[in-house]
TrEMBL record:
Name of this protein: non-specific serine/threonine protein kinase
Keyword Transferase: yes
Keywords carried by this UniProt record: ATP-binding, Kinase, Membrane, Nucleotide-binding, Serine/threonine-protein kinase, Transferase, Transmembrane, Transmembrane helix
Organism: Solirubrobacter ginsenosidimutans
Domain Protein kinase residues, every copy: 13-273
Keyword flag Ribosomal protein: no
Enzyme Commission number, as recorded: 2.7.11.1
Catalytic activity as recorded in UniProt: L-seryl-[protein] + ATP = O-phospho-L-seryl-[protein] + ADP + H(+); L-threonyl-[protein] + ATP = O-phospho-L-threonyl-[protein] + ADP + H(+)
Top EC category: transferase
Amino acid sequence: MSTLVGMQLSGRYRLDAQIGAGGMSTVYKAFDVNLERRVAIKLLHREMSADSDQLERFRREARAVAQLSHPHIVGVIDAGEDENRPYIVFEYVEGETLKDRIRRLGRLPVDEALAYAIEIARALGCAHAHEIVHRDVKPQNVLLDPEGSAKVTDFGIARSLRDDGLTADGRVLGTTDYVSPEQALGHDVDGQSDIYSLGIVLYEMLTGDVPFHGENQISVAMKHVREDIPDIQRIRPEVSATTAAVLDRMTDKDLAHRYADVPSLIADLEDALALEAARQGTSTGEATAVIRTLPARARRRLPFRMRHSLPVLVIIGLIAVAVAIVVIVSREVPPRVERGTGPGRIEQSTPTGTKVVSVPRGSAHDYDPLGDNEEHSEESSRVVDRDDGTAWTTESYQDGLEGAGKSGVGIYIDAKPKVAAVQMQIDTPQPGFKATIYAAPPGAVPKSVPEGWTKVGAGTVSTSNKRIKLDTGGTEYRYYLVWITKLAPGSTNAEISEIRLFQEVAA
């Protein structure tokens, strides 16, 4: 087929270089002499043209992709035949495949992997909306353009859900490294099969390798049928529980437990990306571009500076104003300021004979042992950043904690190494919730309430700056937990802007 380089198809498309080849066809970089633009040409092998099934599959690809117009799908420009050689003309994407990128870099940054998964899922959502299943989702079929954006290509074995034939039961199509269990067994497939394959692609982006290896394609396919993929958090501990849960659901063998459709998957991937970016405090690669497209629901998880892009000069100006204000305040106000993490602010009165316990920004952690162990963890540090303008919130409970079957949910402070706190102040813009204060000694954080915890206080956070006396009996504890047991009347969540611990001052 390399001898075809230099020929001109239909008097219009000049084949300049071969850039890919498969069992059915060869792909060329070509030039459209009529419109003077670079294109990609997929040319069916001459011997395949005599096979009516293969010929119909090739034509079906052209018809299928021609229906799809999406920024993350490589578009079809034209189709035709030249001397009984059918061909399809695609937009030309300059760049590498996602597989090339994984081979070059190994595991990708977590947020970048999620960003690519979102772009691929959005492309699949467009195809599924047209009742077209890709059936061969793999990183080799994802092109990355010069800006880093993903574009899905090669719908060569795509099938309309309205079509019959050409995909009889018992025939396995697709690449076995990414094949869904139902596809490996030769069953009819729908969009859930593409979701499984995308899950395997996401796993590979996060780990740098596919989950299963075997002596041959059949052994790998059977592992997809019989074995769960390895625990992503064991292989890559920095992956959040939220991302791990999305991946587990994408690759569930049971169709009843796997995502039923792409829109619900996209919503969870978007939330996971926002969470990962918030945890990192920044974004990398394509994640930066995808974050700008997130819906408000997901963007609220991001810190302010990632939700709002301000011009550099404006930021510099704001910093200059802030510095000027600090200088003025420092001259006019007595220096009764407790210095610690965060931007700092003038403290309210400290109880007589006590002082604020100094804790670092990373000392606050959400606590949800009765749920998914994730309660807006990216917001946890806000309760110790000494800024009343930021806050940690619980998840939304439309029917209260009781309706969710929970006795409570909370957030704790790590007062390392340990301290005998005598009072706690809880600041909230939304008073009225009830809380029990627990403490635990140095060591592992107790996994449930009340086991391992000691009750040291309780009360209703009835004001915006509620102080609760703590009865530690002089015992020094490392962890102090605010365990919210009842939401404020009419509220669907609880919100805490600051938590302060006080200890006695030595005489």
